[in-house]
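haha ok so turns out i had the wrong file open the whole time. this is the CORRECT one, sorry everyone. sequence first:
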Amino acid sequence: MKTIRDFDLKNKKVIIRCDFNVPMQDGIITDDTRIKESLKTINYAMKKGAKVILLSHLGRVKTEEDKEKNSLKPVCQRLSELLDKEVIFSENTRGRKVRTLVNNLKNGDVLLLQNTRYEDINGKKESGNNNYLGRYWASLGDIFINDAFGTAHRKHASNVGIARHLPSGIGFLMEKEIKYLDKITKNPKRPYTVILGGAKISDKINVTKALAEKADYLLICGAMAFTFLKATGFNIGSSKWELDETFFCLNLISDYPDKIILPIDIVTALEIDKKAKTKVRFVNEIKEDEIGLDIGPGSLKVFKQYISDSKTIFWNGPAGYFELDNFADGTKKICEMIADTKALTIAGGGETISAIKKFNCADKFTHLSTGGGASLAYLEGKPLPALKVIDEKNI
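then structure:
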């Protein structure tokens, strides 16, 4: 697949699709990792004499009220600081003012357009991959570089739509993501252990099945573990579970009895509250009014046996409600266990990455993927539309 290195960028208007979908609170960026991950590609284009045009989405924009809280202006300010250079900001996503800003760019200049999902207000033109919008954005540039792995599994006007109409390649971040995910999809060093947590098994059915086939062990935790436990006949009290997925869970355990590892004990409480009193219950002892909110110390001992012996580890989804300290120990200990190994360690998913950073383990992982849904789709073996269109153009 062509990368940004394969193009002569001098004097060219280069559109780079970035992933600036950063967490924000009251207009302030709380984690700028995704912006920093884009710097290598942007700096490269600048140094090669390109006129750089950046596109990104931020959050979901369904109403006019959503626009203000999802403006990319704070991202522009932070990007200017990180590049040590003024980044020009367009309040618009298209129109005469945008065209004027583009035409006035000099070599090495950087322009950031407003949130691409502003175009979703009337007819979901961005997320619906509106052909006119894709062609319009493509008309602003000479070359298209996709560096937004987090949206690679989506067919949007700002990735697939633009790539259809311009010479296209991928940036350094996209290249890095593929490189590391290929290490666990093509020929992982074994034992290969996958840790899956988070809220819903329904969001991960296909990838769970695919990973069960490829991995040596699948450690199940988080709220999704309770559907597995319910399927096998345990009383899970008031814990979250999904009735429609019990048959799938039962079949998976039946098909891979030596691979599927479930918790043996659970941290419970009567409510989700930072002051709630907790109990550690074996999975056959959970009371009717108790909610399972973390895995217990016995489960952690079992998990450690598999994690410690592994040579490849992929983790997606926290072990519990880690945002509250009284339910954070399972996720924290898994972070530390993985950090202590010499294995190739990759994690994906927004909550998982947040937990890893919260517990100061980020620098101990081989790779933290910027795309949770995209990484799961890639591991499942699904073609990613944003990569497929570039690949097909360059055949």
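Residues 33-47 form the longest helix (15 residues).
again sry for the mixup
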